[in-house]
Amino acid sequence: MSIKHMQEYRDPVISKGLIESLWRISNRPIRLMEVCGTHTMSVFKNGIRSVLPENITLVSGPGCPVCVTPQNEIDAFLGLSMLEDVVITTFGDLIRVPGTQSSLQRERARGKDIRVVYSSLDALDIARKNPDKKVVFLGVGFETTAPTIAASITMAREDNITNYHVFSAHKLVPPVLAGLMEIPDVRVDGFMLPGHVSVIIGSDAYITFAERFRAPCVIAGFEPADILHAISMLAEQIEAGFGRLENAYTRAVTAKGNQKALALINQVFETVDTCWRGIGTVPLSGLKIREEFSAFDAEQVFEIIVPYSEAQTGCVCGEILTGIKSPPDCPLYKRLCTPTEPFGPCMVSSEGTCAAYYRYYCG
Amino acid sequence: MKTRQILLDHGSGGRLSHELITGLMLPAFDNAPLSELHDGARLDIAGMRLAFSTDSYVVDPIFFPGGDIGVLSVNGTVNDLAMCGAAPLFLSAGLIIEEGFCLDDLDRIIASMTSAAKNAGVTIVTGDTKVVPAGTADKIFINTSGIGLIPEGIIISGDRAQPGDKVIISGPIADHGVTILVQRKGMEFESDITSDTTPLNHMVGGMLSSCPDIHVLRDPTRGGVGTSLNEIAERSRVGIKLYEDKIPIRAETAGICELLGLDPLYIANEGKLLAFVRPEHVNRVLSVMKKHHAGKDACLIGEVISDSHAKVIMRTRIGGTRIVDMPAGEQLPRIC
């Protein structure tokens, strides 16, 4: 999609109209969750909270992949970086995330070979060019990044690249939505569902969740007008007293999603129960590399030694990831936990709620 | 638990760089010109007002569309002097070269430095060359230092921004950083973006002749416009209000930033300046800037407001507000 076309969704006049109608239609106090970290960032970057009626509260959800990666997996990444002849390749977001005793950034400063890449295919290329090294890609992400990572594994097999491995810490969005609803303190009146994830999985993937919980759900794009439109649709549903699944991002999201991408995910990965930071184990919410591809599975190939792993105490990442608390409610926020000295991943990920508050929040 | 060590972020121009300078260098070297934390030091010697500045260049790759490490090293120090209100005169050049470096490439770099110096009207009068064993430096690093004369009556300083001042930018932002990024290994974008590296001293000379009472000048290099504005707000103890829809950026640059999740406000420029001027001087300064190639797209992007918290605030396109914070670390290392 061209940038020129995107401008419509940033048009101040369109946004102004949406804001005015929101002030007209929304009366009762409601809490809406932006499930996706990219939504959280866009909300802050565009100053959307500052233009909403006071009765609408936006809370952030578990949609920041780095943030929901549990501490023991972060420590396992660090453990992998200690192994001889291993090159760690990762998206930049993970670099600063604190493990129990170090971070990838600090290990890089100590001379470990840790490289930031923009795609798993770049990591595969590094493996191709360095046959004497073992290249591990840290597969942290949702349904959005899983297809290209699956593709990198099938390509590695086709091209007989045996020194490429993936640590799959992938998580799935629809199962965690149900997981959230099971947590007693979670109070959300409507869900703004992630646009990018939905492009892959399609809107039908949420039908079971929406029907089971009668939850107002709207799939949203990422431009200011997209988000304001989705908030209006959620407010309308709630004011009218019903909850259903709607798609406000029809220019990109279809009912069935991207079938090719889904087939690729299914070819390489199987769904397993997995642990989310702050939420706990959610049934069938993770992706594990299938046995058939175990030669590419870093967890199968390497003996990863994690010396000591413990989540930071005092950090309320868990309650922030479930929308129960906001960053200013955390005693560490801005006092002891800052982007340069982070306690939890939410403060360092580019999609983290604490990072968004720290960078953009005027309060 | 954590070892004290230098991270790439310490060289980013962002918050960690700032902490390193104010926590380590400033108390250790402790003197008045340094404590101004400007692009260069202002010195009074024998009745003359001199500006003195130094900068090291480690850009990777060393050749990129729109320039190379040589031209960058000359323009960078020329611009640092110009941001003190000085007319740059003499430069030094220190080269650290890796064993095995191709002499043809060195020829190209020296030729670039020669033509950049000529273009800026400065003379490279002294230098040094060191060669280090292969693997102990990456190809070539260049340090340049420079001195210039500050004309009578010109007081440019980061602490002079005053409520009511208007903030001008000389043209579209983020081109240099994005150019370097797309050239990096593994980034295969088709792109026509070129580095904006250019000397700003001729334009600054014109601006100061027309309006000697410019309060602050700053070239938003490493750390970008967002970092520079935060530094100025902090030094001057004022707030700065930006208008998102006024900030110029080329569509292609904006597109690449968006694709890669980078905020152009924090991306390096090498041929842009920010000027803080009284409202009544805005039109005069803008009209001078627009006559120069380096300032033909100059425009107003914000204003200074009273705020003891020294925050930079952005009014967004949709009429909301948000903070523009100083970034924790550089999004891209070795940009200049």
Automatic annotation (TrEMBL), chain A:
The keyword Transmembrane helix does not apply. This is Protein required for maturation of hydrogenases. GO terms for biological process: protein maturation. Belongs to the HypD family. Keywords: Iron, Metal-binding. It holds the Pfam family HypD. It comes from uncultured Desulfobacterium sp. GO terms for molecular function: 4 iron, 4 sulfur cluster binding; carbon monoxide binding; iron ion binding.
TrEMBL record, chain B:
One of its GO terms (biological process) is protein maturation. Pfam families: AIRS (PF00586), AIRS_C (PF02769). Gene3D superfamilies: PurM-like C-terminal domain (3.90.650.10), PurM-like, N-terminal domain (3.30.1330.10). CDD domains: HypE. Residues 39-150 form the PurM-like N-terminal domain. InterPro entries: HypE, PurM-like_C_dom, PurM-like_C_sf, PurM-like_N, PurM-like_N_sf. Residues 162-313 form the PurM-like C-terminal domain. It comes from the Bacteria. PANTHER family: CARBAMOYL DEHYDRATASE HYPE, HYDROGENASE ISOENZYMES FORMATION PROTEIN HYPE. Belongs to the HypE family. This is Carbamoyl phosphate phosphatase, hydrogenase 3 maturation protein. It comes from uncultured Desulfobacterium sp.
